Recover the amino acids of this structure.
């Protein structure tokens, strides 16, 4: 087995609430990313997937506190606080967000923003930086002549490409993409997914794809972690998750997703809503919505290793679910 | 067919483009966005039609013209046998009750200061319906039951912020249903909702449809349209380029744009990985519409004639039309 590039161990994130108390947004999750690997982080809003991504980047807001380990190439990024993570953020790990408009500076041309990123990180300066910025833009499919454009002069898809180019300016090993295509049209989404696919292939970039959209993960990633209520419900190779789900949530989430190849299949919603995370969990967090819950589910199920890189947190694991 | 509840014929919607001070001073010719450029379709009672396409294709403008929220430049919109365009507000009001709309974002479309009871009853008050307070209350309860917010007592006194996204969209649907409409226009009704609750709202729309409601659904999500709509109309740059029974459009698309769109929709099954027909570039803006077939600059199979000849919608099989010289 290759040594993992990035390992998240027992990560916890708490948010201080304005009205007092804490929200336990991420409750001890573990993730492994191999060099060049593609990991999907899937779940519904509030499941902790974006918080996990921000914690890995050290970009949590001041109201949040994190515990656990985020080990990149053998070094724990969380251990030394901002001091440690600063030398790795954007350099070894970079992130692109859903709304590229918010990630780009509206009063600076996209070219100038990439030049600035290169100069701040001592990658290049002056005309060399300009040249490199042009190369970066072309690598994401933006003609270098457009480097003088302002973000508002670009379409949504082009802005997302520019944000990706900027994230790649220091040649990171890991790119986190947080819902990068959610605001985009189907065809533009396909273009961006193609681009991410090509970047992973050509530059050996490792990818963490954060999304609520299972089909995107099924098409783009090799592994995925399904999150629910701040915990990992199940993780493993995407093929196994779809064809042999071990957690009822994984199975029901796929069943709630309409698919063009299955027009006659039943599309069923999952009744109920996720639990509040400002109170301790009472047993399995999915129990109230689960179609297979039984007495034992009153206890919180541990995440069991199932071999072949699979894990699931369900008391029924190993028992055939029909 | 005269049995249709809604008939839209050759609808054209244009918006003027702001010329700015310099443009106005130099008398630059007034340009306009051809948001909808000759669209025709019809919906019968108990039928769900999905208008599908990318942003800027004119699907929302079409819906807004049907709702008379924007004025059509030309074309006919017949609803329950009456021509809507040209009707004044007073004559329109009784028809408006029969023609209701729900929006994408149930967080925005509900007044945060109104309890569920007031939000649903407000429609009745505006339309001077429901009679006594007790009668209104009964209608509100019935509407909540129809959208499966049961028991209604659990929801009547809640504010929108106390509801989940799916519940809010149900309240919005209840506020439309309480007026007993015959047509519901649903603009991206589930795209803001979590995956696990989308199917519930769509199934609700499906059961309302089965009970006789006609639904015009605006969506960019082909998988949803394919699963829930009876017919799909695919729009590109202000025109319908293909229309037909949902399953047929999806299983045997005739227009190259439909084919490309369908090919890039991600599938659930990781074993079904395939490279779709990813079109380069983006939809041109609707101010300068390409000559001939408006899709030809991006079309993977365009021939010389496509640059000059504009294809009309032609029947390719029963009830299935496409506008392509090669179809």
């Amino acid at each position: 087995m290759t040594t993992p590039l990035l390992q998240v161990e027992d990560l916890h994130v708490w948010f201080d609430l304005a009205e007092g108390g804490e929200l336990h947004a991420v409750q001890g999750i573990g993730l492994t990313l191999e060099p060049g690997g593609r990991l999907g982080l899937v779940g519904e809003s509030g499941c902790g997937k974006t918080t996990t991504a921000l914690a890995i980047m050290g970009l949590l807001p001041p109201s949040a506190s994190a515990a656990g380990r985020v080990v990149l190439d053998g070094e724990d990024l969380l251990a030394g606080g901002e001091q440690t993570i600063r030398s790795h953020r954007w350099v070894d790990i970079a992130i692109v967000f859903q709304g590229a408009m918010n990630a780009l500076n509206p009063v600076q041309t996209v070219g100038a923003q990439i030049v600035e990123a290169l100069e701040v990180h001592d990658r290049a300066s002056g005309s060399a930086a300009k040249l490199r910025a042009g190369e970066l833009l072309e690598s994401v499919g933006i003609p270098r002549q457009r480097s003088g454009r302002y973000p508002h002069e670009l379409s949504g898809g082009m802005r997302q490409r520019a944000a990706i180019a900027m994230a790649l300016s220091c040649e990171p090993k890991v790119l986190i993409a947080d819902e990068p295509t959610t605001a985009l049209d189907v065809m533009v989404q396909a273009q961006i997914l193609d681009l991410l696919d090509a970047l992973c292939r050509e530059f050996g970039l490792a990818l963490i794809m954060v999304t609520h959209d299972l089909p995107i993960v099924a098409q783009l990633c090799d592994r995925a972690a399904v999150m629910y209520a701040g915990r990992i419900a199940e993780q493993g190779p995407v093929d196994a998750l779809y064809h042999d789900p071990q957690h009822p949530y994984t199975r029901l989430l796929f069943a709630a997703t309409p698919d063009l190849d299955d027009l006659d299949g039943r599309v069923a919603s999952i009744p109920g809503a996720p639990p509040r995370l400002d109170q301790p969990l009472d047993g399995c967090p999915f129990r109230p919505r689960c179609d297979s819950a039984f007495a034992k589910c009153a206890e919180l199920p541990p995440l069991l290793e199932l071999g072949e890189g699979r894990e699931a947190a369900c008391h029924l694991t190993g028992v055939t679910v029909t | 067919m005269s049995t249709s509840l809604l008939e839209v014929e050759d609808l054209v919607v244009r918006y003027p483009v702001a010329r700015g001070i310099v443009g106005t001073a130099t008398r630059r010719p007034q340009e306009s966005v051809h948001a909808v450029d000759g669209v025709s379709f019809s919906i019968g009672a108990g039928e769900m039609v999905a208008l599908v396409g990318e942003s800027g294709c004119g699907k929302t403008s079409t819906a807004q013209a049907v709702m008379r929220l924007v004025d059509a430049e030309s074309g006919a919109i017949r609803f329950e046998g009456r021509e809507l365009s040209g009707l004044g507000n007073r004559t329109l009001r009784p028809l408006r009750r029969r023609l209701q709309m729900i929006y994408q974002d149930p967080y925005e479309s509900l007044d945060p200061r109104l309890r569920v009871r007031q939000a649903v009853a407000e429609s009745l008050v505006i339309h001077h319906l429901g009679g006594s307070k007790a009668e209104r209350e009964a209608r509100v309860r019935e509407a909540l039951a129809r959208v499966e917010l049961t028991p209604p007592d659990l929801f009547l006194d809640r504010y929108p912020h106390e509801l989940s996204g799916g519940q809010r969209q149900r309240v919005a649907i209840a506020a439309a249903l309480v007026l007993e409409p015959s047509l519901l226009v649903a603009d991206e009704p589930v795209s803001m909702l979590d995956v696990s609750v989308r199917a519930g709202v769509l199934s609700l729309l499906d059961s309302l449809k089965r009970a006789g409601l006609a639904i015009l659904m605006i969506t960019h999500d082909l998988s949803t349209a394919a699963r829930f709509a009876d017919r799909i109309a695919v729009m590109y740059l202000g025109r319908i380029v293909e229309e037909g029974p949902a399953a047929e459009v999806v299983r045997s698309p005739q227009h190259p744009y439909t084919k490309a769109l369908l090919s890039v929709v991600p599938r659930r099954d990781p074993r079904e990985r395939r490279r779709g027909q990813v079109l380069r570039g983006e939809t041109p803006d609707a101010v300068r519409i390409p000559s001939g077939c408006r899709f030809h600059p991006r079309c993977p199979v365009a021939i010389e004639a496509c640059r000059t000849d504009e294809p009309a919608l032609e029947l390719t099989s029963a009830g299935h039309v496409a506008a392509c010289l090669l179809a």
